[in-house]
Amino acid sequence: MELAHSENSDGISESLVEHLSTVAHRCRQLGKPLKIEEEAFCCGLLHDLGKLGKPFQERLQGKRRRVNHWSFGAHKAIDSLKRNGAASAIAINGHHTGLEVISAPFLKKLYETEKLVQSLEKQGQTLSRVEPETATKWLQSVGFDLPKVDESILPYSQVLGSKHPAAEMANLRMLYSVLVDSDFLETEAHFQGSKQGRYKRPARPELDPEKAHALLAKHLNLCRKNTVAPKSVVSMRDDLMQACLEASEQQPGLFTLTAPTGCGKTLSMLAFALKHAREHSLRRIVLVIPFLSIIEQTAAIYREIFQSKFAPDYLLEHHSLVTGSATDTDDENREAESRIAYQAKLQAENWDAPIIITTNIQFFESLFSNRPGACRKLHRLANSVILFDEVQTFPTNLAIPTLATLSQLATRFDSTIVFATATQPAFPHMDKEVRKIGGHGWRPKEIVPEKLHLFERAKRVEVQWPLPEETRDWGDLAEELADEERVLCVVNLKRHAIDLLEELSTRAGQEGLFHLSTNMCPRHRTRVLEEVRQRLARPDALCRLVATQCIEAGVDVDFPVAYRAMGPLESIAQVAGRCNRNGRLRQGRVRVFIPTDEAYPQGGGYAQAAQQTKNLLGSEGSLDIDDPKLFQRYFKTLYNLQDFQKEDKVIPSILDRNFVETAKHYRWIKGETISVVTPYDQRLYEELLAEAQERGISSTWRKKAHPLAVSLYRDSQGQRGLEGYLEPVPLFGGEHESAEAFSDEWFFLIDEEGDLYDSKLFGLVGTSDRFWIA
Question: How distant is the alpha carbon of residue 535 from its chain centre?
Answer without folding.
Answer: 34
